[in-house]
Amino acid sequence: MNGINKKRKTPIRPLNYIGMMRVTLTGLLLAIGTTVMLQVAMFFQDWGRYNQTTDFTKSLGESIKFMLAPRAWFSVFICFVFFVLIYAILNRFFMTIAIYLITVIVVFVAEYMKVKARNEPIMFSDMSEATAVGGLTGMIDRQLLIGAVSLGLIILIIAVLLEYLVHKQKLGRLNNFFSQLKFKNKWFRLVMLVVTMGSLSISFVVNADHNQAWLQKFGYQRVVYSSGDDSLWNGPIATFMANISTVIMREPHDYSAKEMQRIEKKYGNTAQQINETRQSKAAGQTVAYILSESLANPNDIKGFQYKGDNVSKNLEAVKQQATVSGKMLSSGYGGGTANIEYMTLAGFPLATYAPEMTVPYVQLVPFAHTVPNIAQVFDKKEVLHPFVGSLYNRKEAYKKMGINHFYTTDNKDDTYPKKYLGGASENAYPTDDNAFKYLENKILKPTDKKSQFIQLMTMQNHMPYYQGEYPNNQYQMTKPVVSGNTKTQIDSYLAGVHQSDLALEKLIKHVDNSKRPITLVFYGDHWPGIFTFVDPQIQAKEAHETDYFIYQNDAAKKREQLQSNLKRSYASPSDFPALTLDAMNVKVSPFYALQTQVSEQLPAFANYTRGKFVDEQGHTIQTKQLTSKQKRLLTDFKLVQYDLSDGQHYLSNKFTKTMK
What is the per-residue burial (b if ≥16 Cβ within 10 Å, else e) of 372-401? Predict the structure, then answer.
């Protein structure tokens, strides 16, 4: 009788067919929902590409339409496999859902914010920035960040509570339902782990061509010219997976030891010819590269008008007095700073690398046999950056490139001084005025015979731009008419550009008063991503033009017996090393002799696309329109680029040996 009266416990059953179907359905629904929401992060934007819109309902509709395409189901497949992998690891239903949803929230916020800033999705190369969380969170909308963290905590708390109730069998009739959703066979669980991990790792272990073939089985179609458009068309997950397997540069068809010997001899002779007219060495001189963050000239934007003084008055005046000046053709829009920076140092354009090679500092520099760059021409080599230095793998890249010191806010050995970190307001980035003062402090005395290279990367005009950033801001955009948030950002940006312009005037006066030969290489790295009425695809050339100049003080002009025939109205960032050495009248190695001929004889590389150039009149031309002589030069250049970046290193050390 006692046995009859005892409360019977519901038996715990293994994961059976019905349980598997329930788990599968749950994972599939979550995967579909995830794919839709990540696509919303792509469409809920105001860039105007492929029906992007700030109307959430419309963006959701476009995202649901995307699910009709076969390529959308690649994302569903990846998300589902990821869900099953978590389940196989944890073997807990609610905790699996919680971890999955928290991951999705993190990815959604990251994707949304990066597309909002640059119209680019998260790429595999961005994983190198995971160590710089502090620097990255400062660039994220605070309300969105707080909302995401709060939602994640709520999900986690609910999951823990439900797991506790299931464990204690306090859910009544649901106890049996949830108890069936657990792996009881360790071998089956192990098989699921192997299968899911294997499926997710395919893109990581195969080469790029096999990876493309794997993706194409789901209907993936690469959009070469834009990762942003690629993610709108194929989904951000497919775009991410497509760019995991790195191809630095595909081998040119005529690449061989014999061909590289011919090139080495040819440009060795070219270097001798150039050096006959060059009288100078770098000793006792300073070259300062100044990367002015997000500096574009608002006066160049068609139809754009604002209330206030000319924001670029001093910049425009300095360009008229400079040794050479013009427009630089950036590879980025709203971001990609490190890529532009790499080109200015190494002299290789991004457009001639493989499409999969998106961040040279991460994918190329750590593994390259050698990384010749203009800093190596000088005795003392320093980089100054009033921010964290862990983004884009800069610390390791600079070591490989021979930089002696990298001064940042998070570098214990070379710490950026606090007295130069003041911003225009309490939470603003350090002003260019303070950054230029630190640069001035770093320039060696006129009596020091060492040659010196300094690179300064400013932060004043970096996103975000917000109301109150510049107290008593007198600038207001008047045309075109835009939404309140866009106008607020642009008004703040205008004030920042104006402050940078005033700081530039002071810097030029300081340089002019110095008796040390100083050459300034100044450029804006890319446009900010706030001029939403400009389409960076339709108006590609205009949206990737920033100002640049190479300015020399009287001491440098006298030292170099400067000739005034240097001209480059449109320049690629990769032209800067050759242009700088030309301006300084410094003798060159065969490597820089080749780069000098490229800057003199080829139109500028249009790094925002592939196979196109911009001539001195601003006309866009294709490779097939080059002369036969120009095509031969371009071929030689690509062969050298391949050999030094990813080839067999047939070129000897003499080819790149610096001429100090």
Answer: bbbbbbbbbbbbbbbbbbbbbbbbebbebb
Read off the DSSP letter of residue 620: E
Distance CA 426, CA 306 (A): 26
- pLDDT at 211 (0 to 100): 81
Handedness of CA 316, 319, 325, 330 (dihedral sign): negative
pLDDT of 398-433, one tens digit each?
A: 999 999 999 999 888 899 999 999 999 988 999 999
Of the given ranges (94-103, 478-487, 633-642), which has the lowest mean pLDDT?
Answer: 478-487
Could you list the beta-strand ranges (E) of 245-347: 286-292, 305-307, 324-329
Cα separation, 65 vs 579, in Å, equals 50
Phi, psi (rounded to 5 degrees) for 358 = -100, -25
Closest C-alpha to 364, from 392, 386, 324, 385:
392
Contact 34, 104 (CB under 8 A): yes
Contact between 335 and 120 (Cβ < 8 Å): yes
Output DSSP code: residue 312: T
Q: With the CA atoms of 480, 495, 132 and 376 taken in that order, what torsion angle do they form, in degrees rounded to the nearest 10?
A: 110
Amino acid at 116: K
For the sheet with 620-622, list strands across it.
604-605, 612-614, 620-622
Residue with tokens 């709203």: 334
Give the relative orientation of helices 484-513 and 432-442 as an angle to the nearest 10 degrees: 20
Question: CB of 17 within 8 A of CB of 181?
Answer: no
At 343 the three-state DSSP class reads helix
Q: How many CB atoms lie under 10 A from the CB of residue 509? A: 10
173 vs 171: CA distance, rounded Å: 6
CA angle 574, 579, 585 (to 5 degrees): 145
Q: Could you give the angle at the alpha carbon of 247 between the alpha carbons of 242 and 253, nearest 5°?
A: 125
Contact yes or no for 495/461 (Cβ under 8 A)? no
User: 15 is written with which tokens?
Assistant: 């994961």
**How would you label 479-489 residue by residue, b for 16+ Cβ within 10 Å and e otherwise?**
eeebeeebbbb
CA distance 378 to 454: 10
Spatial separation of the C-alpha atoms in residues 618 and 404, rounded to whole Å:
38
Residue 14 confidence (pLDDT): 47
C-alpha 636/C-alpha 163 separation (Å) is 65
Spatial neighbors of 659 by CB under 8 A, at least 6 apart, are 275, 281, 377, 586, 587, 588, 589, 592
What is the C-alpha to C-alpha distance for residues 49 and 536, in angstroms, rounded to an integer?
A: 9
Cα angle vertex 25, ends 23, 31, to 5°? 100
Q: Judge contact between 578 and 349, C-beta under 8 A.
A: no
Helix pair 576-584, 337-346: axis angle to 10 deg = 40
| 406, containing H or E segment | strand 405-407
> Residue 132 gets which letter from DSSP?
G
pLDDT in tens, 202-259: 888 877 778 878 888 888 887 755 677 888 889 999 988 887 777 889 899 999 999 9
Q: Which residues contact 290 (CB under 8 A, 6 or more apart)?
A: 439, 455, 456, 458, 520, 521, 522, 523
